Amino acid sequence: MCEVTRDNFDELLPQIKNDIDKSIFVAVDAEFSGMVAKDLDYLPLTEDAAARYRRVRENIQLFTLTQFGLSTFVYDRSTNSFQAHSYNFYLFPSQCGNYDPRIMFQSSSVTFLQRLDFDFNKVIFEGIPFLNSEQEESLRRQKFKRSFQDIHEVKKRLQRLIRWLSEAIEGSTLELGPLDNVCHEIFKQEIKKKLPEAVVDSEIIIGRQIVTCLKAVPKATSMVFDVSVSRGDTEHDEDLEMEEIDWTGLVDEALGFTKVFRHLCESKKPIVGHNLLHDLMFLYEKFHAPLPERYEDYKREIHRILPSVYDTKLLYRELKKNLSRSLMVQFSSLDELYYGLKSKSARFLAPKIGHADNFSRYNDTGCLHEAGYDAYVTGFVFLRFLHLCVVDGVRPSDRKSIKFSQYINLAQPHKNRIPLSRACMPYFNLEGPDPEPYPLVSIHVSLREGADVGLLDQLPRLLAGYGFLDVEQLSPTTAKLVSASGARTSYMLEELKDHPSLILRAYRFYDHPSAKRAVKIFVGVALTVLGGIGCYCVCKK
């Protein structure tokens, strides 16, 4: 694994792009500052795909990414092996010009990551900035005047630089002290205009502060006598105050990780993740553009920029049913799948999967919920599980000749399908119509005589083993259950038919209090009308 922060991002960027280009697919994972701000603690089974998208979108707009894991898998035909190049990026949005983002942290998410020794200091002090296209365009349109505070900081360093240049010898260096990114950009521009012979030797980023190192070159000493700012020339001071800043360098720096995401989109490499609903929407919102209001617009655009997406959670759910019992892997969470598929019994002449040179941190120890590690694990699960599915039914002598293209062919029918939890449909289909919703089954629950009325409040916990259920309390002693699984509902009715406290039966529309009220009103009106007609007929006679 290679850890990437603001300090080494620019240095590693060419290598990261090269690894993406060489890869056969790229596995990804992300950690967030939170996920649930509102309306996600309860997800109704009855809502459609568009409603679910809108619900998740509202939450994602409030939070940010703290870590992003990217693992590129390179295939070596000569050894029939895959080498993983895993990167763990620390991310944090940076203030730039008038762009000053607000972010939210969710206490439960922070606590969860703290237990895993997550380094929040590294996120805040060394996190790589990022922008989406709308934020970038807005910054590039802005024109800013230099503030008095900025001018003061730049003047101090220019004067110090000038004094030093008058005595400096060739090859000596001067370290000027930390500046924020705005002052640093102004300082660089002033050096280019007023001290063209003073060459910037290096830039060291320490947290959010930038230290600039300068190298004295021939003729630099003679140039100092022509720099009037050293003598407090008011004309030059006014120029420094009135000129607008060229933000090009600052915006390019603020783009940060967005450069990696854009290269990933341009490469059109297959993207592999586990339970990708939130990950994809975060990637879209933070690095591409604000999430559109309409679900169909989101589907169309995410498929355009990332045309090949595979979700290991959905692949496992859909393909495990076709595996022979002897090859069945009975797990669902990412780490359980990884350790199950890593076992000797699951190998079956599978291609070797390892870490590339200089990426060996994860060889001996796991770092669960570190995004770079989870990205590698996701890619491993993708390869090993598809291998199991392909070799099932293949003679042992033919297993060595299996190619990666056979894995992709097997996964192809499930491409661009993102699994949903607690929903009336199994997945979002990013490249076509969504599947038909499950037929919902409704159950009426009532308490037997003498049963504790508080039992209805405990129904979600008592019936958790029968799948996802919506519970609506109709009265102090009755409730309505809605399930998306007819088979589980039938099993529940059969198993609980003799429950000592509950009576379960099929729900009828008139079981709902509003329906009962409507029926009573209708009957009352009908009787009133019939009575009136009867009286009229009697009087007529």
What do these coordinates show?
By secondary structure, the protein is an alpha/beta fold. The chain has four domains: 2-134 and 256-429, 2-Layer Sandwich (Nucleotidyltransferase, domain 5), CATH 3.30.420.10; 148-246, no CATH class; 441-507, Alpha-Beta Plaits (2-Layer Sandwich); 513-541. The chain is built from 20 helices and 16 strands. It has helices at 9-22, 49-60, 107-115, 120-126, 133-141, 148-165, 181-194, 220-223, 234-242, 248-255, 258-267, 277-288, 295-305, 312-319, 334-342, 371-391, 404-411, 459-462, 486-495, 513-540, and strands at residues 2-4, 25-32, 65-76, 81-90, 173-179, 199-206, 209-215, 271-273, 309-311, 352-355, 417-419, 427-429, 441-447, 469-475, 478-483, 502-506. The strands form four sheets. Strands 1, 2, 3, 4, 8, 9 and 10 form a seven-stranded mixed sheet that branches. A four-stranded antiparallel sheet has the order 14-15-13-16. Helix 1 runs parallel beside helix 11 (258-267) and helix 15 (334-342) packs across helix 16. It is globular and about 120 Å long. The N and C termini lie far apart (99 Å). The model is unreliable at 204-208 and 217-243 (pLDDT under 50).
Structural category: alpha/beta
**Distance between the amino and carboxyl termini:** 99 Å
| pLDDT < 50 stretches | 204-208, 217-243
User: What is the CATH-assigned architecture of the largest domain?
Assistant: 2-Layer Sandwich
Sheet-strand content, in percent, reads: 15-25%
Number of domains: 4
CATH topology label of the largest domain: Nucleotidyltransferase, domain 5
Q: Over all CA atoms, what is the radius of gyration?
A: 32 Å
Q: How many H/I helical runs? A: 20
Largest β-sheet summary: 7 strands, mixed
CATH class of the largest domain: Alpha Beta
- Can you say what the CATH homologous superfamily of the largest domain is? Ribonuclease H-like superfamily/Ribonuclease H
Morphology call? globular
The helicity comes to 40-55%
The number of E-state strands comes to 16
What would the average pLDDT be, to the nearest integer?
80
